[in-house]
Amino acid sequence: MSETSGTPARPPLRPPARRGPLRRVLIALVSVLSLAAAGASAARADAPAPPSGWTQVFVDDFNGAAGTGVNTANWQYATGTSYPGGPANWGTGEIETMTSSTNNVALDGSGNLRITPRRDASGNWTSGRIETNRTDFQPPAGGKLRVQSRIQMPNVTGAAARGYWPAFWMLGAPYRGNYQNWPSVGELDILENVQGVNTVWATMHCGTNPGGPCNETTGLGGSTACPGTTCQAGFHTYGMEWDRSTSPEEIRFYVDGTNYHTVRANQVDATTWANATNHGFFIILNVAMGGAFVDAFGGGPDGATVPGHPLVVDYVQVLQSGGGGTTPPPTGNRDAYTAIQAESYDSQSGVSAETTTDSGGGQNLGSLGNGDWALYKGVNFGSAAASQFYGRVASGAATGVGGLVEVRLDSRTSAPIGSFSVANTGGWQSWRTIPANISNVTGTHDVYVTFTSGQPADFVNMNWFNFGR
Which residues lie below 8 Å from residue 141, measured CB to CB, with a gap of 6+? Predict the structure, then answer.
């Protein structure tokens, strides 16, 4: 494992139990384009306009009334001490309980999100963890993806900071709903910090655990001190740029525009890289208390730890550049593991496109009901089998009205290889990503998405779909 800037070698971060995710994200940011040191100033600064050649595909400036929660059109709360059926303590050994309370996760009325760990009179810790609803963040073929955030780490140091573990990171889409396939599906840690030290760590996790080609549970990591003002005393811009225009493909990590760590595809075998990157990702912000990474730097929290110091987030922004963008790819050249926009069909029956309010804008397919279908020609699944399907859907159907979203290959009358059911999600623009298991698929196929219901009424809208391994 390589480390930079004279920081100590990073010890293993996760218990060597069954695969459990942790916070290490798979991607780096901001290339030649300067992000101008966002350091010291705590002033509100909305996300910058995309530079020439880049398109903004997601942004949240956290502008809202003080004491309100996050925009649930963009984010979902992860609560408790694990995902349902996932590894205990979020797979990392941390000891807090995550909540959706505005006591832990709230806007401050000045354009910032604050995630604040609290300790009650009995010594129990609570904190916050939010994740993007979208799971499709990845570069277009031959292009780049940039993920960045202007953040001030919890402003606490020394003994009072024991146990603090803030993070800004990403997990591979196949993890959502599975929770047992880490680290093979990839994790990209853009920012991690422990114990209030003036250091930012960036790491990619992949392969198998323990050991494997990515040196788990440590991962492929690097670190550096925050330039100028310390990580705790001021805002800095932390980012990742995932570049598919280079050979080999690479993921670069930045702080205030300076590239301090890079992971390249030729550092691991082709299968490991493909399994970790041939799909979308979702973004996570959280503050953990305790855990394996903390233990490696002295442990905590303990009686000296001072609660109430927030991770302050000014904005989160995702940009993309080059490649095919959102234009439908040529027939025979659709990537199964990149979000396929539902309105980019080659043929259809009964569907219509409409403007969506889902993150990233664009259009969705609406008015979908029994017997409707859409065809997407030439979807390439590759030689490693896909086993999952993800659909981004919304429904304002009446009570008792629902149906199935099905996947069929090469013929509209073929038996479905997988499906999921959907009913009212809270509105026709109330979006959620629903996973489904499918029969293993390799090679290139025409994909039919079909809609089946026992009622005549429309039951679902669809924005995009993709596949995972």
Answer: 244, 323, 324, 329, 335, 338
**How would DSSP label each residue in 381-424?**
--SSPEEEEEEEEEE-PPTT--EEEEEEESSTTSPPSEEEEE--
What average pLDDT does range 33-61 have in this prediction? 70
| Reported pTM | 0.65
Cross-strand pairs, 437: 388
The DSSP annotation for 52-89 comes to TTEEEEEEE---S-TT----TTTEEE--BTSSTTS-GG
The neighbour count for residue 251, using CB atoms within 10 Å, is 29
> For 45, what's the count of Cα atoms within 13 Å in the CB-facing half-sphere?
19
Cβ atoms 394, 429 nearer than 8 A: yes
Instruction: Report whether 66 contacts 44 (CB < 8 A).
Output: no
Per-residue confidence band for 327, with pLDDT thresholds at 50, 70 and 90: very low
Cα(209)–Cα(361) distance, rounded to whole angstroms?
Answer: 38
List all residues 6 or more positions away from 413 whose beta carbon is below 8 Å from its beta carbon. Answer: none
Q: CA 146: distance to chain centroid?
A: 12
CA quadruple 450, 453, 458, 461: dihedral, nearest 10: -40
Which tens digit of pLDDT belongs to each residue from 108-145? 999 999 999 999 999 999 999 999 999 999 999 899 99
From 252, 8, 284, 256, select the one nearest 167 (Cα to Cα): 284
Question: Which residues lie closer than 8 Å to 1 by C-beta, 6 or more apart?
Answer: 9, 10, 215, 218, 219, 220, 221
d(C-alpha 337, C-alpha 273), whole Å: 13
